[in-house]
Amino acid sequence: MRPTKDEYYLMIAEEVANRATCFRVKIGAIIVKDDQIIATGYVGAPRKTKDCLERGECLRDKLKIPHGRNYEICRSCHAEQNCIINAARAGVSLLNGDMYIYAKNQKGERIDSFPCFICKKMIINAGLKRVVCSTKEGEIKIFLVEDWVKDWQEKDIIDDKHQYGKDQNN
Hints:
Keywords: Hydrolase, Metal-binding, Zinc. The chain is of the alpha+beta class.
């Protein structure tokens, strides 16, 4: 059976995730515009710096920081951030593009790939239209970026019901 476009692009994001250098998760993101992939990114340390795999440890695990919190204490840039950055480095406009995000934990099990608040703000400001995420159930969750803007105009971002890390913290 032929995959839908959303399934197809999520499969590519899954392959991108395999390049991740984070101990906790493997996340990959791609941006598609006019049915063409224009950028990719995975979770990993900034260029030319040591990542968690090279260091043999996760600083956030060592400090017992829960998923979805205190991102400033992390060696990595998120997949979504790297995807946006890579497009900027190439001089590519993201306006009205779609981002696809795939995530799995260190055991290789699917997890919800919802963007964190920092990445959501970057996605809004980049002018993306949709964010298509894989879920731990193997389903696809589609967010319209304009809906985030409307929600945050009416409520605060902490009221957002699709927060990264909720499915991983015990």
